[in-house]
Amino acid sequence: MNTPKTYDQLVEENEALLIQLDEATETIHAIRTGQVDALVVEGKDGHELYSLKTADQTYRVFIETMNEGAVTLNEEGLILYCNSTFASMVGLPLSKVIALSFETFIPPDCKEQYEQLFEHGWTEDTKVETSILSSNGLVPCQLSVTALELDGGVAMSVIITDLTSQKETQKLLKSNNERLEEMNIALEVSNHDLQQFASVASHDLQEPLRKIQMFSEILKDRHLGELPADSVKYLEKIIDSSNRMRTMIIDILSYSRLSTQNDSYEIMDLTDIVHEVLKDFELRIQEQKARVVVGRLPELEVNPGQIRQVFQNLISNALKFSRSDQPPVIEIKSLPSANVDDPADIPFASISISDNGIGFDEQYVEKIFSLFQRLNTKDIYEGSGIGLAVTKRIIDKHNGRIKAHSREGVGSTFIISLPLRQNNPS
Amino acid sequence: MPLDEAKKKILLAEDDVDDRDFFADFLGDRTDIRLLPGLTTGVEVIEYLNGVSLSELLPDVIILDQNMPKLTGLETLSYIRSNERFSRIHVVIYSTYVGQELVDECLKRGGSLVKSKPVSKDGYNMMMDEILAVCKSVPVG
């Protein structure tokens, strides 16, 4: 028995018919716009294939397979044609998209922009960045419109480029940039703190220390006779300690200033620098009956003041850590560059400074270049333990390397490798 | 013993009272210099110089502490060098810590010498010897 259909069922049926109609329209449209390559029609002799291949098949394939959405609109803004990319962008079947107004896919806050685009697009090719509505939410995209003269009149082609991944990349870049910026600010602050510290250390800390030195000296000068013997001893210790503290403050200051100094490099003959340094040590060399042999050293692009300090420190160490049973012999010479195993293949020059002093156990070789590291007790060899740290830092700043070899009781050799030229960005 | 006129007139500007005393204590008995009463700021130096009517009475050497309130040693130096009348005066800057920047800047502004503050009586006398040696030449400013 056929039961009468309910209203709902009728509406449903009607809708289904409308969809069928739509699909039929769509098929016709698809044939007209070249989306269909062939039709199979059932005739009296069975199925027959009607090929629709035409010259524009290449273009149809091109449009269908491209990554951008492509639609054409009529003068009312209704969608005449769309490729499958656009359909999947908005998350609807192809058949549902055709004949809808393109505005359907424009979110409310982009409507005005779209209206302008649609109006303007008939006279001039235009591009805008906007969003379209899809079943999964908003899709950021670029719309690029062009007016077309077709057989049946005018139409507007719209190419829709999905910008989702581009936007994500941009967002990522932006957040990375922001992070970098934050880190830069933090670095600047810490640099500033360091400079503040250097300035405090340079003046404010030294001022009271100098007073301690001065008044201890005065006390010793004027009242030496009145003081008991052990008081004089204590006074001497105060003076010694304050002298040592002053040396350390000055040394740590010169170390910290290395990072804030402006670097200016000049091409210098290292032979000249070494001879200058030796002049400063003339008296000590005479006193210790030291023999210093200086070979021909290369011309390098260096910061003269800093490299001078390197040789000063190394020669001073060679004189300081000499053996008591024989006069020091110091040899400063250029090494053949073959000794350098440089992976970056930048031309380097190597210089060795060797002595016949007390040497050190090579297991401590890493330690000697660290701040305040001493391998000897300070009552025998005075010093702040900062000289080699400064030396290494200077060599690092010159993009060079420093190595040390030593044998206890035999002597030490320091090898400096420096690039011939510094690549300063000009 | 040199005549009084041959003694170099030394003017010190130093805000630290101990440091002014060290000067007087250690250098007061030298026969080759005459210490003018010590001043405490660069501003006082300027007032003092402007108050001297006879050029012969101007100091031969002005020693400026770098770190003084209001006007630093360098700023006071610049003021002194801006006035032709004081061009004969040697200006020495001394400070607890002497960095290369201070040396460069002082010489650029027409100072004669930069010294770090001595830590002993001998240090003071050696500094003064060096200052007097430099003063034999004409100020470059």
Explain what you see.
The complex is a heterodimer of chains A (426) and B (141). Chain A is an alpha+beta fold. Chain A has three domains: 66-162, PAS domain (Beta-Lactamase, 2-Layer Sandwich); 189-247; 264-419, Histidine kinase-like ATPase, C-terminal domain (Heat Shock Protein 90). Chain A is 46% helix and 23% strand. Chain A is built from twelve helices and 14 strands. Chain A has helices at 7-33, 57-65, 84-90, 94-97, 111-121, 164-204, 206-223, 229-260, 270-280, 282-287, 304-320, 387-397, and strands at residues 38-43, 46-51, 69-73, 79-82, 126-134, 137-150, 153-162, 266-269, 291-294, 299-302, 329-335, 348-355, 401-407, 411-419. In chain A, the strands form four sheets. A five-stranded antiparallel sheet of chain A has the order 4-3-7-6-5. In chain A, a hairpin with a 5-residue loop joins strand 3 and strand 4. In chain A, helix 7 (206-223) runs antiparallel to helix 8, helix 8 packs parallel to helix 12 (387-397) and helix 11 (304-320) runs antiparallel to helix 12. The mean pLDDT of chain A is 83. With 141 residues, chain B is α/β, with parallel strands linked by helices. Chain B has one domain (4-134): Rossmann fold (3-Layer(aba) Sandwich). Chain B is 38% helix and 17% strand. Chain B is built from five helices and five strands. Chain B has helices spanning 17-27, 42-51, 73-81, 100-108, 121-134; strands at residues 8-13, 33-35, 61-65, 90-95, 113-116. In chain B, strands 2-1-3-4-5 form a five-stranded parallel sheet, sandwiched between helices. In chain B, helix 1 (17-27) packs across helix 5 and helix 2 (42-51) packs parallel to helix 3. The model of chain B has no long low-confidence stretch (mean pLDDT 89). The chains are: A alpha+beta (426), B alpha/beta (141). Chain A binds chain B through residues 202-203, 206-207, 210-211, 213-214, 217-218, 221, 243, 246, 250, 253, 257, 305, and chain B through 16, 18, 22, 25, 67, 95-97, 99-100, 117, 119-121.
